[in-house]
Amino acid sequence: MSDYVTGGEYMAPARIHADRTARTLDIEWPDGHRTRYGFEELRWLCPCAFCRGEAGQPGWLDSAPTLTEAQVTLSDIALVGQYALAPTWADGHHTGYYTFALLRDACPCPVDTARRAATAHAGHPGP
Fold first, then answer.
1. Taking the C-alpha atoms of 70, 73, 79 and 84 in order, what is their torsion angle to the nearest 10 degrees?
2. Domain 15-116 grouped into CATH 3.40.50.920
3. In contact, 23 and 67? CB cutoff 8 Å
């Protein structure tokens, strides 16, 4: 497990590539780990207040909407300082700042998915 995942030193990606044809966002991390998000998966991860909610109120994504083609088509993506990515979606949505910590912690690869499941399971006693 990398230092990043275990609470080590802050790391920014070594490489970021948005492939509009393949509809994927690929991230290479300095420790050699690679993360790939499909655009729809990335949109579901949107951390903005509208999508996630605020002040105890649920966000739009909590209503399990059916996403349109425009809502899962990436129009642009920009760096926010040295800590986040800001995608702009074809429907005009652009308020979600995806921190590098979020992108790494939510990595959908099998290794990280198993790590999150094990951590969640460890916190709950079995039947």
1. 90
2. no
3. no
**Mode of pairing for the β-strands spanning 57-58 and 74-80:** unpaired
The predicted pLDDT at position 124 comes to 57
Distance (Å, rounded) from C-alpha 84 to C-alpha 56?
25
Residue ranges for the chain with pLDDT beneath 50: 1-4, 8, 126-127
pTM: 0.83
The 8 Å CB, 24+ separation contacts for 11-16 are 11/100, 11/104, 12/82, 12/83, 12/100, 13/100, 13/103, 16/77, 16/85
For the chain, the domains span: 15-116
Tens-digit pLDDT profile for residues 50-81 = 999 999 899 999 999 999 999 999 999 999 99
76: Cβ–Cβ under 8 A, 6 or more apart, which residues? 87, 88
